[in-house]
């Protein structure tokens, strides 16, 4: 029997529908976005060749776990698949606009001995950032050439 005297709070009903909307629509999109963003960033950072293998292993493991979480979440319902795909497409489109991902070493003010690597993204439309990156790569190439010539002379 249905009790028609039972009154449900509108705030409770709105909160229920907001949570339902997040878990059914936004969550799969967010997981798909983070999965592709992680794989793309990992691939670009690894290609630089400056990270130590434990860091690469840890980043690769975390990205793979997020990807597997996305697939496990999609198994729960067919309605999540299109939103996961939208997140993947959005991340792919965004990452196509990225020119380079670097990890420059930055010293903290007040702590000159503390060196921290901070993720820096250079976008395709940023001409000044691209020029700065190319100059840094040329300087690095020259330094490597001098070091190899010096070690060959020894």
Task: Give a short overview.
The protein contains four helices and four strands, in the order αααββββα.
Report on this structure.
This protein is an alpha+beta fold. The protein is built from four helices and four strands; from the N terminus they run H-H-H-E-E-E-E-H. The protein has helices at residues 10-48, 53-75, 81-95, 127-153; strands at 98-102, 105-108, 111-117, 120-123. The chain has a two-stranded antiparallel ribbon with strand order 1-4. Strands 2-3 form a two-stranded antiparallel ribbon. Strand 2 and strand 3 (111-117) form a beta hairpin. The model has no long low-confidence stretch (mean pLDDT 86).
Runs in which pLDDT lies below 50 for 5 or more consecutive residues are none
- Strand percentage lies at 5-15%
Separation of termini? 93 Å
* Quaternary structure classification: single chain
Widest sheet, order of strands: 1-4
Sheet/helix structural class: alpha+beta
Shape: elongated
List the keywords:
4 helices; two-stranded antiparallel sheet; 2 domains; 154 residues; alpha+beta; two-stranded antiparallel ribbon
Q: In terms of topology, how is this protein built?
A:
Layout: H1 10-48, H2 53-75, H3 81-95, E1 98-102, E2 105-108, E3 111-117, E4 120-123, H4 127-153
Antiparallel strand pairs: 1-4, 2-3
Helix pairs in contact: 1-2, 1-3
């Amino acid at each position: 029997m249905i009790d028609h005297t039972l009154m449900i709070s509108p705030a409770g009903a709105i909160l229920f529908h907001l949570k339902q909307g997040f878990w059914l629509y936004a969550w799969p999109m967010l997981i798909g976005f983070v999965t592709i963003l992680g794989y793309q960033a990992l691939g670009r950072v690894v290609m630089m060749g400056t990270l130590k293998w434990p860091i690469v292993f840890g980043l690769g493991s975390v990205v793979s776990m997020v990807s597997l979480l996305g697939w496990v979440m999609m198994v729960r319902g067919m309605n999540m698949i299109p939103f996961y795909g939208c997140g993947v497409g959005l991340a792919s489109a965004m990452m196509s606009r990225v020119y380079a991902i670097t990890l420059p070493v930055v010293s903290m003010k007040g702590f000159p001995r503390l060196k921290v690597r901070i993720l820096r993204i250079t976008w395709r439309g940023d001409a000044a950032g691209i020029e700065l990156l190319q100059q840094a790569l040329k300087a690095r190439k020259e330094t490597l050439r001098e070091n190899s010539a010096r070690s060959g002379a020894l």
